[in-house]
Please model this.
Amino acid sequence: MFSNKLNIVIKIAKQAGAFLIDRLNSGKKISIEIKAVNDFVTEVDKQAESLIVSLLKKSFPDYGIMAEENYSDKTIPPNLYWVIDPLDGTTNYIHGFPSFCVSIGLCENKTPLMGVIYDPTRDELFCAQTGKGAFLNGSPITVSETKNMQGALIGTGFPFRNFAIMEKYLDCFSSVLKRCQGIRRPGSAAIDLAYVACGRLDAFWEHGLHPWDCAAGSIIIKEAGGTVTDFTGGKDYLFSRTFIASNTIIHNEIQEIVISSMPLKYPF
Ligand code: 2AM
Ligand code: CA
Model:
């Protein structure tokens, strides 16, 4: 059903997901480094990333790599490149809170073409490829049909490091909360995006995301019929650090609310 390339990436994501679970269940202490305040990396992130990168390089030697724990040069690779988050939701993982995943996207310039998100705690594999639809464990998925914010369940991410924006974020949070059915913040952006794609959430917004948090999720949402933009409504959602996703129907509504309190351009 899927292309060879997608099948290979699915296999790699599942292998990395199994590694995350085995390591968590092994009972062995996990060593944690602090990258910045409230920004952690564990030896498990690094080992899962090495595993994914080596397997992708073996199958696709000509493709570039942009991976969370080894992204130093900050440039967009010239050809097709993999965008990898080996463990999205590291803080959850450290606490054993079951919302974390492996996220692998394939991009060309600023456009995602293929995406795989694997949640090993629920054995849920979300994937998509341009023009071929979006899937959860092999079955087609679509975004919700929720008609307005009043009927919507919304995902977000809180500021966790740069607290300069806190007041504006809380204003924004309050405006969204007053207009919708509820807000959820499980702590893995990639899983939140997968949930927009399959209709469990109707929309999602966050600032400060990196390409590896949202590359795979963006193509999965688009293939499921959703819309992904930056805060201005433009297409720079992977690199602008401002991100809104929705079921398309409520996109303008949530964008308007978000930008009524949040600045349009990052850094804020
Ligand atoms: P990460 O675990 O891969 O770093 C959403 O808030 C995103 O921010 C998450 O997908 C998470 O990706 C990242 N993040 C980093 N540190 C965080 C923290 N202390 N709390 C929540 N999210 C964090
Ligand atoms: Ca990560």
